[in-house]
Amino acid sequence: MSDAASRFELLRHGDFLLWTDGHGITMTMVTAAAAAGFVPGCALRLGSGSAGASSRCVVGMRSRRGRAAGNGVVVSRRVGGQNRVGHRLGAEASPGAAAKSVREDEDTFFEAVAIVLKEMFDEDKIARVLAAWHLAQKGTVYEKNWDPSGQNGEEFWQRCGSFIEGLDARPFHDPNGGNFPWVHELEQNWETIRDELRRSYSDNSHVVKRGVNVWVPAVKDVALEYGPDWRTLVLQDRVWEPTNSKLFSKTTKIVKDAKVPSVEVFFARQGPQTGIKPHTDNCNFIMTAHLALDAPPNQSWIKVGGEQRFWENGKALVFDTSFTHSTFNESSTDTRYVLLIRFWHPQLMPVERKALQFIFDAVENPALVERELKVWSAKQTRRTASDLFK
Questions:
Q1: How far apart are CA 52 and CA 325, in angstroms?
Q2: Reported pTM
Q3: Right CATH for 172-344 from 3.40.50.970, 3.40.980.10, 2.60.120.330, 2.60.120.260
Q4: Tens digits of per-residue pLDDT, 124-136?
Q5: Where do the structural domains in the chain lie, given as residue ranges?
Q6: Burial class of 244 by CB neighbour count within 10 A (0 to 12, 13 to 18, 19+)
């Protein structure tokens, strides 16, 4: 071990080594291969104050094609961009100053998150989340074709780069079937929601001036599928947007009072003669509901997994966007408006939701991982000291 390395305490976890100054002030992870010479530039920094080269963690998937998985197939696909559509699991690190590969940096981050998850939660209770995280680390995508004709038509594919085992999978779910008790509350109050939205039309300049990101287009990574005429007004994006929630206080209260297990809530606008191209949101544990507010009757529709349904004002559609889906508004004059809600799959346990939420937060802010690793390191140090005196 080099002189530089000797100033640090070494902790081992699997194939990775954690370096700390012994006071929990800095935390860096390096691969075992790099540990012998401890080159600071080879380390992934998970926040400020560590010794390694800085790396930026963003959402993405590495590519790998080929192996079978259950009744589906794991294939390759690179999915870049924000973690806003589909809530994909994954981390893609930008290269640091040293000649360490992106692959090693990614693996370091994945391993760090896995350590923290096991420390924060009962490992047995989050086994499915850990399995999904490891699949994301390998860059795998689960695919299954549900074409009843057996012809493997493109519109019948279910594709999940972020995949939790054992969740009920079907294109459309019965909104009144018992798994979604909150749907009834939304439908009962749909006119209140519609009227609040309509009032914003008449005072659009006020809403645009006071609101945050009012009627913005799709994020860059999905703009091609969603098209230039698809617009959203966000109320919740994992956390409630305070300004827009106040501007649409009645809608926000209805959703909260109904106890919707929401991750995102926003109004979605689709202009006449426009649509969304076939695509998948790449995730099976976040589902989607649309409450139709202003929909041209028998003219605006959504197709999921080969099944087409029309929006009806005051009625909700619940569906799984890991299936290939598309939309179109056939009206030549009228715009379609829906309240769009993305929510946790009802078969996820509460602890699994919390673990997945931590992953989303960690991908956006790796400093959270560093903070939790310091806690873990301190515990490991105390355990080591205790063992020495046994």
A1: 43
A2: 0.72
A3: 2.60.120.330
A4: 999 999 999 999 9
A5: 3-139+351-388, 172-344
A6: buried
